[in-house]
Design goal:
By secondary structure, the chain is an alpha/beta fold. The protein contains 10 helices and 9 strands. The two termini are 29 Å apart.
């Protein structure tokens, strides 16, 4: 197989006919043998029926049906585990990422690169979303222990040996673009203008985006834990300065915010110190909780996904739990 295209789907029945038409037009011109693996992530609309119809009409469109919704990143992981192409592409079903870019990506692979990722030069989304995305990627790059390219998503084309590295990572809190960067190899980016969704409504709510961002930040950096040390020293320094000020306020008797220290014996120091230290403690506990929660999830070693049914695919060692019905 020359090229596999992995596409996670969740309630995408409105856009799937357009997706198929554009994919066939593109793939017929760039690959002699290709497959499209559509992963239904527990859709509640007509997406499963649409995917099944696409497979009946063209067996090169293959399918994985999850037993429930396991999440966008998990769906991508399942598709990668079943991909058999010498090159494997990842894209979303909403056509915000243009499949026409695959040709340029494959040309870069032929130049010797192992991973070609798409860099979003411009996004046709709300101003608030654009600001949040830009801020996240810059914070991620600053905190991560490896270089994560700015303004990149999951849209990419990779060689098969890179895909094997990704599928051998048993993590439950998956952040595909982070794992891709961590894997290394020769990587390069291609700029493109990200389009608006072709049809339907966005499936990533604010909380899902926040969860994805947390997986990226806490999955590839221990800096938040180190922040506890910095915050501790900062809190100690502030406490010393505050103590010296309160002592001077008491000795010299000058007015501060309209009062002398003798008029408020012990109140300012006690309340201010308690609130300050409590805030630091809760901040540190929050960071620790995020990491401990991820450890808890990992050590249970549950399957990352459960497959209800497949179309056109064979079970693989990396296919997790396949429940035949």
């Amino acid at each position: 197989m020359e090229l596999s295209v992995v596409i996670p789907c969740y309630n995408e029945s409105e856009v799937l006919p357009m997706l198929k038409a554009r994919l066939v037009k593109v793939l017929e011109n760039i690959a002699s043998e290709w497959e499209v693996i559509l992963i239904d992530d527990g859709s509640k609309d007509g997406t499963p029926n649409c995917i099944a119809a696409m497979h009946r009409e063209d067996p090169r469109f293959k399918a994985i049906f999850f037993s429930r919704n396991f999440g966008h990143q998990t769906a991508i992981s399942a598709g990668l585990a079943h991909a058999t192409g010498e090159a494997v592409a990842i894209m979303d079903a909403d056509l915000q990422d243009p499949p026409e870019l695959f040709k340029s990506c494959l040309e870069k692979l032929h130049e010797g690169y192992d991973v070609v990722y798409a860099v979003r030069r411009k996004r046709k989304e709300t101003f608030v979303k654009r600001i949040c995305y830009a801020l996240f990627y810059r914070v991620m790059q600053a905190l991560a222990e490896m270089d994560v390219p700015l303004d990149t998503g999951d849209f990419c084309v990779m060689r098969a040996h890179v895909v094997r590295v990704l599928t051998n990572m048993p993590e439950r809190h998956v952040f595909v673009r982070g794992l891709r960067a961590w894997a290394g190899f020769r990587q390069t980016g291609l700029e493109y203008e990200r389009n608006a969704r072709a049809a339907g409504k966005p499936k990533y709510s604010f909380w899902k985006l926040a969860k994805l961002a947390a997986n990226g930040l806490f999955g590839f950096s221990i800096l938040p834990l180190r922040v506890a040390i910095y915050v501790g020293f900062g809190g100690l320094a502030c406490s010393i300065v505050a103590g010296m000020f309160i002592l001077a306020w008491r000795i010299f008797g000058f007015r501060f915010m309209g009062h002398r220290a003798v008029e408020l014996p012990g109140w300012t120091a006690a309340v201010g110190g308690m609130l300050f230290l409590a805030a630091i403690q809760f901040l540190i506990l929050g960071f620790m909780g995020e990491y401990i929660g991820r450890i808890y999830t990992e050590v249970k070693q549950r399957p990352r996904w459960v497959i209800r049914e497949t179309l056109g695919l064979r079970a693989t060692e990396a296919s997790e739990l396949h429940a035949s019905l």
